[in-house]
Amino acid sequence: MLRFTVGRKLALVAAVGLVVAGAIGGVSYVGNSQIKTGSDLRKVLNKANLDLTQLDVIQGDARIAELTQIMSRNDAERKSANEDLATVQQSSDAVWAELDKASVSADLRQTLDEVHRIYTAWLQDVTAKMPALAALDPGSGPAHQATTDAATASAALGTKVDAAREAVQKQVDAARVTSDSTIASVKDIVVIALLVGVALLLTLSVLISRSITRPLVAMVTALRSIAKKDLTTEINVRSGDELGDMAGALGEAVGEMRAAMTTIGNTSATLASASEELNAVSTQLGSGAEETSSQAGTVSVAAEEVSMNVSTMAAAAEEMTASINEISRSATSAAGVATEA
């Protein structure tokens, strides 16, 4: 079974922190991608709107070239009008080339293609009419009618271009709303994820902190009791980490110390009993010694009497020896006298 050690607890806190940071980073990345996509779309749509505005200007230039051709009175003016119209054609082609490359929605692409077709047809029609317009008398009725027809056709084209611009602007506004909504959503999600992550980290940190500090506090309390010579204390720590091992080892040490102190107490009792027995024996030996000393005194007195008797007997023996020697000498003398007689 995998032990939930202190290192693993701290690693869990770090892992949760990384997960929270990764979640916030992922949300931010996705949100930024969506925001960037919306921003890019807005750039494309704004560029398309500017191109359509430019087409309005080009249409006005083409209208001026057409009116100049109607009102021209000499070849120089007519040539200038045709050159202006050729420039307008080139500008129109360049703008439409940009619009054709724009990445827009399918419905807007359909609208732009329709306007492109109408715009190109109108410009081709103006170009085709230029020679006929050059032949008109500026003050004649046909010239006036041509001017009216040109204004009508230009107005119809302008309406189509304006409608396309409105469609583009609607999508620009929609893209702006979407982008703003995405930004607000990303902010809300980041804030919520941050709050949830912080709450989760705080909760996990408190739980892990308690799982570490509570065993430490219990062991410190037990050590203080042991320092006060209280070996009856119990270390109630249930933990599967190094602190649990430490508490278990400390409990075993206290148990061994308690057993040792119990053994020492039992030995002390035995020694006390033996000491009492030794005291009793010592008392008996003291009494015996006193009696022996008393007997020794009596023996000493008797010995002295015996010594005195022996001395008296020795003196008597010496006197007897002297008497015997005197008798012997007398006997010898008597024997000598007898012999002589």
Give a description of the structure.
The radius of gyration is 69 Å and the shape is rod-shaped. By secondary structure, the chain is mainly alpha-helical. It has helices at residues 6-71, 75-101, 106-134, 141-227, 242-340. It contains five helices and no strands.
For the record, give the distance between the C-alpha atoms at the N and C termini, rounded to a whole number. 146 Å
Described by strand count, sense and barrel closure, the largest sheet is: none
Shape: rod-shaped
Low-confidence stretches: none
> Percent range for helical residues?
over 70%
H/I helix tally:
5
Strand content: under 5%
Report the radius of gyration as a whole number of Å.
Answer: 69 Å
Structural class: mainly alpha
Element string (H = helix, E = strand)? HHHHH
Tally of strands: 0
Mean pLDDT: 82
Short description:
Helix content is about 90%, strand content about 0%.
Annotate the secondary structure layout:
Layout: H1 6-71, H2 75-101, H3 106-134, H4 141-227, H5 242-340
Helix pairs in contact: 1-2, 1-3, 1-4, 2-3, 3-4, 4-5
